[in-house]
Amino acid sequence: MAFPGVIRISPYTLLRKERRLPVMGDVLVQPGTSVEASQVIAKGFLSDWVCLDVIGELNVSEDQLELFLIKKPGEEIEKGEELAVKKGVLPFTSYSYISPVSGRIVATGMGQVIIETVSKEVELKAGLKGTVKEIIPYYGAVVEGKGAVVETVWANGREGQGILRILEEGKTSHLRADDLDPGNRGFILVCGGVEDEKALEKAADIRVAGIVVGSLKLGLRKKALSMPYPIQVTEGFGDIPMSSIAFELFRGYEGQEASLLLGDSIARRPCVFIPVAGEIITAEASPGVLKVGSKVRGSRDPYRGKCGVVQELPRYEVHLESGYTVSVARVRLEDGEEVEIPLSNLELIDET
Fold first, then answer.
1. Contacts of 303 (CB under 8 A, 6+ apart)
2. How far is CA 245 from the centre of its chain?
3. Which residues, other chains included, contact 322 with Cβ-Cβ below 8 Å and sequence gap of 6+?
4. Global pTM exceeds 0.90
5. 39 φ/ψ angles, rounded to the nearest 5 degrees
6. Could you tell me if 29 and 141 are in contact, meaning their C-beta atoms sit under 8 angstroms apart?
7. Which CATH number fits domain 295-350: 2.30.30.30, 3.30.465.10, 2.60.120.10, 1.10.3720.10?
8. Quick check: 287 pLDDT over 60?
């Protein structure tokens, strides 16, 4: 039997993030220190030779490194450019290793990539408002924050902070260049999608803090990777409206500061984090367990991005028109329609 994946969309939870320098350096905080998202918690110097642990980030073996490298020894690479890509079954399940430095690739081996670069100071920011829970000697710290979390399916390799702003037309709107003016500077814009490259370029010109969309046209992926601000996608590539549960959470926190964070060893998915004051009430939970009453989201067409509640779990497998025999769940969608969706095409929404 196939089991659904789990995606976290919670109005109030604990989020732990591992914050690491790309090289050894000095950690500036201690366990228990309260930090702001923009606070520098560690500093280091990029030497003339930088060794990047690519296989550790992509979670592949040493002998597979060459298969995923986009750049080869002797080639130049810019900071923020893709160095390696581990492709998944679907476009939005791919993982990219983004180079933290500019320079020339001089060698690869033992799962590492060595880049020749100019020495300069690098700073590591906390990334989110919270408390330092533990120190990673010479590299950084684990920071824990309380607030709302929306995990996403793709990010362009950048992080940042800003104030959430919802576009007027909401989850189905497409960001156009004409929609942008200097009044959007410093804001994280939330909308359904992006119209074209001009909109992405205009957003860079006025220095938005970031963009969160339901979906991104596949033809805009390369341009999005080159943008100087963070971009995150909640549903996938194509033309998919943002799910109602994610959009309503964003709308509830409009006007508040948020952080756009990349995945790490604790949580592989990128996410949007909105700090919220208060105490977490812990309850007995069974993460990853699908049951009647569970909130779910479709991960593939024709129900991709649609949310609903499980009404009935499979007692037997169903033969589909495609020829496959699969286990399905009966789900009541937000519009009241009840449909049968294969378990492998569902994501369980974790609200804890």
1. 331, 333, 339, 341, 345
2. 17
3. none
4. no
5. -75, 135
6. yes
7. 2.30.30.30
8. no
